[in-house]
Amino acid sequence: xxxxxxCIAAMIDTDTFSHLxxxxxxxxEEELEKCTIEMxxxxxxxxxxxxxxxxxxxxxxxxxxxxxxxxxxxDDHRSGSLRQTALTALDRLCLxxxxxxxxxxxxxxxxxxxxxxxxxxxxxxxxxxxxxxIVATVGNRSVSVLPGYLANIASRLDECxxxxxxxxxxxxxxxxxxxxxxxxxxxxxxPQFISGSALEIIVRALSAGYAAEVEASxxxxxxxxxxxxxxxxxxxxxxxxxxxxxxxxTTEVRKTAEAAIRCMKVLRSFAESSDxxxxxxxxxxxxxxxxxxxxxxxxxRVRSSDRLSSIVDLASAVEKxxxxxxxxxxxxxxxxxxxxxxxxxxxxxxxxGRSLFEKTSKDSLAFVKYTDRTIPLLGCVxxxxxxxxxxxxxxxxxxxxxxxxxxxxxxxxxxxxDTDEQGQRKxxxxxxxxxxxxxxxxxxxxxxxxxxxxxxxxxxxxxxDAMFDNTLIHLLDxxxxxDVDVQNIMELVSALGKxxxxxxxxxxxxxxxxxxxxxxxxxxxxxxxxxxxxRSIRCIDALARRVGEEILSxxxxxMSFLAELIDDEDQNxxxxxxxxxxxxxxxxxxxxxxQLKE
Length: 598
Fold this sequence. Notes:
Elements: H1 2-10, H2 15-25, H3 30-44, H4 46-49, H5 56-74, H6 80-93, H7 99-116, H8 121-138, H9 146-160, H10 169-189, H11 191-208, H12 214-227, H13 230-247, H14 253-273, H15 276-294, H16 296-303, H17 309-330, H18 335-349, H19 364-388, H20 393-406, H21 409-413, H22 416-426, H23 434-458, H24 465-478, H25 486-503, H26 507-523, H27 530-547, H28 555-565, H29 571-588, H30 592-597
Helix pairs in contact: 2-5, 3-6, 5-6, 5-7, 6-8, 7-8, 8-10, 9-10, 9-11, 10-11, 10-12, 11-12, 11-13, 12-14, 13-14, 13-15, 14-15, 14-17, 15-17, 15-18, 16-17, 17-19, 18-19, 19-23, 20-23, 20-24, 23-25, 24-25, 25-26, 25-27, 26-27, 27-29
């Protein structure tokens, strides 16, 4: 057979070639037929020849070959291997855009579709991929098979819903991938016509959670989001999200988080491709899906048998994806629409109380419930500051007191947990592990630090006396929280100093407030804890470097504190203090160290 095929290949430029090829494909000898097909693909190197344009005589050869390939595909008595080879050849032939071959491909569609319905998974995969290529080649002339094609894709995906986890798993994964490739091809040719049906199919794929190709499903859904009407798309995606939330009770936490993130990516594709009019109409629908997804933090906590540390990262990843969706909308919303959405978010976050101390004084479980919605709110505030910067400062005021309160959370709550846990045990109620409590408290505090720092950084308006005093009080409490890195506190203190000097309408008011910050932080250097003293002097150093020469106006009051600190019993405090004195000398040009020693 090899020698015969070599001879036939040598006649490629003669009329005899097509006759011999046709004869071989009708021979009934499977091995000869298979080798002939492979020889055609190899000798003509279709993937290259047709991209640059095939010769007319080659086109005539393929016009004779295509019907023979179709005949092999439609013959149920041929082996699956041979039919797969024929489908591969047809798939490759679709690279030709010649009219005569295109017409033959249209005629081949029903037979290839029938092969896609075969019980042989590998054969069905090849047929699905071949169908995708034919549809891409012949375009809207494939409309006659469209209903059956979509039905086949849907049934195949349903078949994969409960596929086995043994050695056949890889085959079913390939089938899902082939079905999604087909669907993508149809979307390109019939975007508006099939988007609704395709949407229903992809909803099945996402809700089923196929092991290997769910990411591909969400990718196709993102393409649907661009072309599908919002009235069809948004309810279907909302349905997927509800299915994910429902399944969270029994599904592995990581898989649930991954599914939610994929849905948010799809929703983001919709938001980014929508015009302002569409967003104005549907932004509350988008927000509703975001808020539902944010409920996963609570569901993870209730569902997981592991410690909270195992789910915090997953919950944070979901919340980040949600905020990316929300941020992609805000720049295209009118101020009134944005404000109504933000107030809705605040209302949702207050589901377990507006204040940290409304219900959490009763037990530590109430505190954990409070964090379920407060931490996502903080993430949203940080994200909106990154997106809108100074524009968002007026909206921050709405939640400023609540967020500033969180800076003092550790000081107020740290002794309460042990008492509450004991009380809960007496009442035989579920308690919260102290380590879990600290993880949530730390995450919430750090998010609050980031939100306040951005408010101080981006705000240009003059701080009211109440706002200034409230901010400073909570910053001083934060300095006692050893779970918060001192760099975060240094950023906040220096940002507050810079803000009052930048935004105060009267310069003397700014200096008065700067002196107040300087004095209150320095008073912390007289506490018994060396760590607190060290944090205080480092914060003062950061403040001075941020405001520059303005800090010299506070020097007379600072001297008495520095005289004590340069001889502090703790080596680290003494070293940090002397470094600060050195900076003041460089700034003022005076020998301050000698004055302190005197």
